[in-house]
C-alpha cells in the first residue's frame, strides 16, 4: 500500500466519522436533499443573473434616453458592479454542474455565492443613494425606503436551498449587515447626505434585513428538523437508505449504504401495509420475513444472493441487507432482448440448479421460482453469473418445523400463476423440491420462447391449465432450433406428476452439464454480450440493480 493509499483511506475514514457524528447530532441532511442541492443552487444562480440583469439594464433597454450609454460600457462603477455580479452568478452555475464537487462542498460554496450576491445587491444601492444637501423631509419621502432587495435575496436563498441552520443564520446576519455598513461608510466618506444619520439606517435595516435574517434561520431550522426526521426514518440499523429500487410481494428493496463500511448493499424491508393493524397478522408477517432472511443466510451457493445481516428497527420494522447486484432480471432480459439461444439458456439453468440443490439439501423449497426472482449479473470477471433471490415463500420440508409450516396461510395459494406447479395450484401440504423444478421448467420455456407455458384469461384459469393441459413443445413456439435433448428435458420438468420429473436439482444439473449442444454458450460470448448490451454504467445504480 502506497503513502497515497494510506492518506486516501485516512481521509475517507475521517469523512465517514464526521458524517456519523453529524447524524448523531442531528446535523446531517438526508441523501435525497443533498443530491438535489446542486440543481437547486444552479437554478438559483440562473435566477439571480436573470433578475439582476432585468432589474438593472431593463429600464435602459426599454427607455435608452433615461440611462446613459456609459452604464452599458463599463465606464460607470455601478455598471461594472452589475456585470461582475451577473458574471459571478454564471460562474457559480457552472460550478454546480461540475461532478467533482460533492453536494456538501457545494452547499458551503453556495454560502459564499449567497454573500457575494448580497454584496452585489446592497453596495450599488446604498453607497450613494442620496446626494449631499438634500433635506431630511425629502429623504424620508424617497421611494428607496421599502423592502430592501437584500432582504428578498436572504429569504429566497433560505427557502430554496437546504443547509445547516447555524450556517444559514450566520450568513444571513452577515448579508443583512452589508447594507447598513455600506450606508454608514458612504456617509462618513461624504458620498451621501448625512441628514438621516447612521442610527436611522440601522433602525431601518433592523426591521427589514435583520428581521428577515431571523425568519430565514427559522425556516432553515424547521426544514432541517423535518429533514432530520426523514433521515432517521431512512436509517435501518447501521444502514442509510439511498434510493428505492423496487418492491415485491413481501417488501420493498432500497439501495443502502452502511454508515461504517464503504460497501453498498440492497436492503429489503417489510411493507408497512403488509404488517397491518392486527397484532396477530403483524407478528405473522414479521416472523415470515425473518424466516426469509434466515433461510437465505443459511445457504452457501454462490448462485444464491448473499445476505449480510438482518434486524429490527426501534419501530419494530424488519429488514435485512444483501449484496447489491449489477445486472438485470431474466424477465427484463427477455422483454428487452427477446428469446435466448438454447446454449445460453442451458448455461443459466446449470447455475440456477446449483442454487436450488443447495436450498433443497438444507430442507428448503423456494416455491416462487420465476424470471423476476432470477438475476443475471456481472460478478467480478464472471459474466452471465446467475443469482437466485427472494425466498419470501420459502418452506421448510422438515415435519418437525411445525411453527414454520404454520407461517404459510393454508387458505392462500402461494407462488405466481404463470410459473405454478400443479401441486402448488392444489395447495398440497407435501410440496417438495420437485415443485421448484417444475417452475424452473416454466422459466426455461419462457427464456426460449418469450411466452409463458400457459396463459389464461385469469390467474385461476392459468392455474387450472397447469393442472390439466399438456404444454405445447417449445420448439413449436421458438425462433431458435431447440435441440431434442433440451426439449425432452424441459417437457420432463413440466410433467404433471412430481414423480415423472427429475428427482432432484442435482440430477437436473448433471443432465444439463452432460448435454451436447451444437452451439454451447461460452464465457467469451458472455463477455462480448455484456460489453455490447451493458445494462448499467459501472458503479452507477439503475432501476435494474437490486
Biggest beta sheet attributes: 6 strands, antiparallel
Q: Alpha-carbon distance between the termini?
A: 32 Å
Shape: elongated
Strand order of the largest sheet: 1-2-3-4-6-5
Q: What is the β-strand count?
A: 11
Radius of gyration: 33 Å
Count of helical regions: 20
Structural class: alpha+beta
What portion of the residues fall into strands of 2 or more residues?
5-15%
The helical percent reads 40-55%
Mean pLDDT: 78
Low-confidence stretches: 11-27, 397-413, 537-546
Architecture overview:
The radius of gyration is 33 Å and the shape is elongated. It has a 6-stranded antiparallel β-sheet with strand order 1-2-3-4-6-5. The chain has 546 residues and is an alpha+beta fold. The longest helix has 32 residues, at 31-62. The model is unreliable at 11-27, 397-413 and 537-546 (pLDDT under 50). A hairpin with a 5-residue loop joins strand 3 and strand 4 (264-270). It is built from 20 helices and 11 strands.
Main attributes of the structure:
546 residues; alpha+beta; six-stranded antiparallel sheet; three-stranded antiparallel sheet; 20 helices; 11 strands; 53% helix; elongated
Topology:
Blueprint: H1 3-25, H2 31-62, H3 77-96, H4 103-126, H5 136-140, H6 149-160, H7 165-188, H8 198-206, H9 209-233, E1 235-236, E2 239-247, E3 251-258, E4 264-270, H10 272-275, H11 279-298, E5 307-312, E6 318-323, E7 327-329, H12 330-337, H13 342-361, E8 364-365, E9 374-379, E10 382-388, E11 395-396, H14 402-405, H15 422-425, H16 433-449, H17 459-468, H18 484-493, H19 505-513, H20 523-532
Antiparallel strand pairs: 1-2, 2-3, 3-4, 4-6, 5-6, 7-9, 8-11, 9-10
Helix pairs in contact: 2-3, 2-4, 3-4, 4-6, 4-7, 6-7, 6-9, 7-8, 7-9, 13-16, 13-19, 16-18
Amino acid at each position: 500500500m502506497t503513502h497515497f493509499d494510506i492518506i486516501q483511506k485516512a481521509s475517507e475514514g475521517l469523512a465517514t466519522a464526521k458524517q456519523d457524528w453529524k447524524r448523531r447530532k442531528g446535523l446531517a441532511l438526508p441523501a435525497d436533499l443533498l443530491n438535489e442541492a446542486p440543481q437547486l443552487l444552479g437554478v438559483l444562480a440562473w435566477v439571480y443573473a436573470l433578475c439582476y440583469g432585468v432589474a438593472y439594464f431593463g429600464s435602459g433597454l426599454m427607455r435608452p434616453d433615461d440611462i446613459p450609454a456609459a452604464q452599458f460600457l463599463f465606464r460607470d462603477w455601478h455598471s461594472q458592479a452589475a456585470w461582475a455580479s451577473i458574471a459571478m452568478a454564471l460562474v457559480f452555475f457552472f460550478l454546480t454542474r461540475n461532478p467533482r464537487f460533492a453536494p456538501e462542498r457545494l452547499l458551503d460554496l453556495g454560502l459564499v455565492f449567497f454573500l457575494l450576491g448580497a454584496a452585489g445587491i446592497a453596495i450599488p444601492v446604498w453607497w450613494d443613494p442620496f446626494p449631499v444637501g438634500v433635506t431630511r423631509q425629502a429623504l424620508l419621502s424617497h421611494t428607496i425606503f421599502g423592502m430592501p432587495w437584500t432582504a428578498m435575496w436572504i429569504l429566497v436563498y433560505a427557502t430554496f436551498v437546504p443547509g445547516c441552520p447555524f450556517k444559514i443564520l450566520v450568513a444571513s446576519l452577515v448579508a443583512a449587515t452589508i447594507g447598513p455598513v455600506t450606508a454608514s461608510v458612504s456617509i462618513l466618506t461624504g458620498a451621501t447626505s448625512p441628514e438621516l444619520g447612521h442610527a436611522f439606517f440601522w433602525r431601518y435595516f433592523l426591521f427589514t434585513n435583520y428581521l428577515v435574517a431571523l425568519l430565514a434561520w427559522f425556516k432553515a431550522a424547521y426544514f432541517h428538523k423535518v429533514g432530520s426526521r426523514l433521515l432517521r426514518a431512512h436509517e435501518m440499523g447501521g444502514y442509510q437508505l439511498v434510493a428505492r429500487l423496487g418492491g415485491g410481494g413481501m417488501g420493498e428493496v432500497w439501495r443502502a449504504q452502511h454508515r461504517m463500511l464503504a460497501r453498498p448493499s440492497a436492503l429489503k424491508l417489510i411493507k408497512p401495509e403488509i404488517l397491518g393493524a392486527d397484532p396477530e397478522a403483524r407478528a405473522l408477517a414479521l416472523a415470515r420475513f425473518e424466516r426469509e432472511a434466515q433461510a437465505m443466510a443459511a445457504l452457501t451457493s454462490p448462485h444464491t444472493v448473499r445476505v449480510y445481516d438482518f434486524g429490527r428497527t426501534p419501530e419494530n420494522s424488519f429488514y435485512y441487507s444483501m449484496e447489491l447486484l449489477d445486472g438485470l432480471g431474466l424477465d427484463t432480459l427477455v422483454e428487452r432482448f427477446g428469446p435466448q439461444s438454447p446454449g445460453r439458456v442451458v448455461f443459466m439453468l446449470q447455475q440456477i440448479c446449483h442454487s436450488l440443490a443447495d436450498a433443497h439439501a438444507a430442507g428448503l423449497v423456494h416455491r416462487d421460482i420465476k424470471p423476476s426472482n432470477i438475476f443475471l449479473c456481472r460478478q467480478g470477471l464472471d459474466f452471465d453469473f446467475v443469482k437466485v433471490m427472494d425466498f419470501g415463500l420459502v418452506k421448510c420440508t422438515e415435519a418437525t418445523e411445525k411453527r414454520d409450516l404454520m407461517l404459510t396461510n393454508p387458505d392462500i395459494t402461494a407462488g405466481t400463476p404463470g410459473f405454478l406447479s400443479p401441486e402448488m395450484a392444489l395447495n398440497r401440504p407435501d410440496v417438495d423440491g420437485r415443485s421448484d423444478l417444475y417452475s424452473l421448467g416454466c422459466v426455461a420455456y419462457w427464456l426460449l420462447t418469450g411466452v409463458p407455458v400457459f396463459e389464461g384469461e385469469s390467474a385461476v384459469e392459468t392455474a387450472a391449465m397447469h393442472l390439466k393441459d399438456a404444454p405445447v413443445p417449445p420448439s413449436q413456439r421458438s425462433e431458435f432450433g431447440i435441440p431434442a435433448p433440451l426439449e425432452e428435458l424441459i417437457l420432463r420438468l413440466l410433467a404433471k406428476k412430481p414423480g415423472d420429473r427429475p428427482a432432484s436439482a442435482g440430477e437436473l444439473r448433471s443432465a444439463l452439464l452432460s448435454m451436447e449442444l451444437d452451439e454451447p454458450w461460452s464465457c467469451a460470448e458472455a463477455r462480448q454480450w455484456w460489453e455490447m448490451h451493458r445494462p448499467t454504467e459501472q458503479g452507477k445504480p439503475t432501476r435494474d440493480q437490486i
